[in-house]
What does this fold into?
Amino acid sequence: MKILVTGGGGFLGRHIITKLIEHGADKEDLFAPSSKELDLRLFENCRRAVEGRELVIHAAGITGNAEFHRLHPGLIFYENAMMGIQLIEASRVQGVKKVITIGSAAEYPADAVPPFCEEGLWAGFPELLHAPYAMAKKMFAVQEAAYREEYGLASAHLLMTGMYGPGAKKDSGPIPSWIDRIAVAKRSGADSIMLWGTGKPTRDFLYVEDAAEAIVLAAEKYNDSMPVNIGSGREVSIREAAEILVRLMDFKGKLLFDPTKPDGQMCRSLDVSNAEQRFDFRAATSLESGLQKTIEWYNGQI
It folds into this structure.
């Protein structure tokens, strides 16, 4: 198939391209323009990007850490919404056969009861800090369902939990940030590191190669209006994940938490049974194994 991968030069996008090739895609059939080549905030560029393509995987997006979300809610909403909505419309106009959009577990209501099930996606409003990002992404699911009904456009919207792995920027999530902070503390001889919050919140951390595998499997096998959770299936506390990193990186100092800083949503885990039932995806990488691979990649960049 002729395939477009938006965000193909980014953290997730590079792994998607690798997985597509592993699944038999020809490099010559893959198109992954940079934002400088095609600014997808402009409809004409979206039309050019999808022209002649049969499959579109939309992995491009504007996001960052909590501080970035606090400072730039308008930019985050506008740019994510415009890119995705126009790309889906361009796909319809140009006769693309299938569209895969990458959403987020942040789309779930702030008071959702874990593990989050897809049926509860519309039961409330997302956590306020991440709502502009979450609602922009959520609109893709609405648009895809509407386009399926009126135009017959095949699609899938995937709800990703927090990703980590080789290639992640240090400010792109908690795990890459912690790895960098521990490494800096080791080099400086610090006797402790301080993380925000109490360490009690729980999360589902997904290794990026597993995330890419799920996306390719969904492209091959899934076509439905119901968004599908993509996660590791393992819930772990912030403290436990950080303690594993401290051990793997052989940091001898103390791990401290600052309870005056916000914890965020206390529990964020996903029911991942639909991904296995609908398109045979189950995460293959344990947290410890994934963290070790990520540390090795980080050390190779120093």
About this structure: The mean pLDDT is 95. The longest strand covers residues 98-104. The longest helix spans residues 73-94.
